[in-house]
Design a protein that fits this description.
The protein is an alpha+beta fold and 281 residues long. It contains 14 helices and ten strands. It folds into two domains: 127 residues, no CATH class; 114 residues, no CATH class. 48% of the residues lie in helices and 12% in strands.
């Protein structure tokens, strides 16, 4: 009543509070057509988090949001019934044989419960059923696992790529630079390649991604020994011998499992092409 400004902010005992019943009639009537999010959660048989996600994604609209003094939102009964009707209308199978639970789909591809529900309510799945029970429960929903994952993951990857176009996986960086397995770690440790923790859209696990900007910057400033060897059609030892005579060593100096490289400026400054040609005569 106080939220609707039917009573003032005075801190009076409930027995001393009066309000205009005629003025409140419409508000009370509207309230009778709504449920709290807690009531809807219990009706659907879902956790508080799943209920919050359902409301947050708009699968069920709310007419009144949560407030600091109230740990629930108000939802029209009509909207809850429409939500359930959409799910029932999407069912295509009479038996749940061979179909999977929402939890199975979530575990298979790291998606949320609402991702699966949205596929159902938007009629994106060809195999859907509800296990028969006395009451409507979202846990009774069954879908084709392969079909659901096949729709969720590609959409998630496309969205990820749209927002993270400047990043690639570390193994892709290794392939792009054509270097040995531990080279990327070596370059990252020395700040020559910049990485950022991102969520892999396939596994939904956090991992390091290299920035394309830092890879391009590295390629602009450095050249790999293997690339020089191919460029001048000679053995890497010929390149290193020539550069050492000019007082320039590779980084790192020892090969091991890390590919060696030079600064392009040093290679150009010592006219490596001419030096290699002389050495090969």
């Amino acid at each position: 009543m106080r939220d609707s400004k039917l009573i003032g902010p005075q801190n009076l005992h409930p027995s001393r509070i009066f309000f205009n019943a005629e003025q409140a009639h419409g508000i009370l009537e509207e309230a009778s057509r709504t449920l709290t999010s807690k009531e809807v959660r219990e009706e659907l048989g879902v956790t508080e988090k799943v209920m919050a996600d359902i409301l947050g994604t708009g699968l069920i609209p709310r007419v009144e949001n949560r407030a600091d003094t109230r740990a629930y939102a108000r939802i029209r009964k009509e909207d809850v019934e429409q939500f359930k009707a959409k799910i029932m209308a999407a069912t295509t199978e009479s038996s749940s044989g061979g179909l999977s639970t929402i939890r199975d789909v979530c575990q298979a591809c790291g998606c949320s419960t609402t991702d699966v529900i949205a596929l159902v309510t938007n009629a994106k799945l060809s195999s859907v059923t509800m296990v028969k029970s006395e009451a409507f429960r979202l846990n009774d929903l069954r879908v084709d696992l392969t079909e659901a994952v096949g729709l969720i993951v590609p959409a998630r990857v496309a969205e990820w790529e749209k927002h993270n176009a400047g990043f690639i996986k570390l193994d892709d960086a290794r392939v792009a630079l054509q270097v040995k397995s531990l080279t990327i770690s070596y370059l990252v440790q020395r700040g020559l390649i910049v990485v950022k923790k991102l969520t892999n859209p396939y596994t939904m696990r956090r991992q390091d991604y290299a920035t394309l900007e830092s890879i391009r910057a590295f390629e602009a400033e450095y050249i790999m020994l293997g690339e020089l060897s191919k460029l001048y059609d000679t053995h890497p030892i010929v390149i290193t011998t020539t550069m050492e005579k000019a007082g320039v060593k590779t980084s790192p100096e020892r090969a091991g499992l890390v590919s060696r490289f030079y600064r392009r400026a040093e290679v150009d400054a010592h006219r490596i092409a001419e030096a290699v040609a002389r050495l090969r005569k």
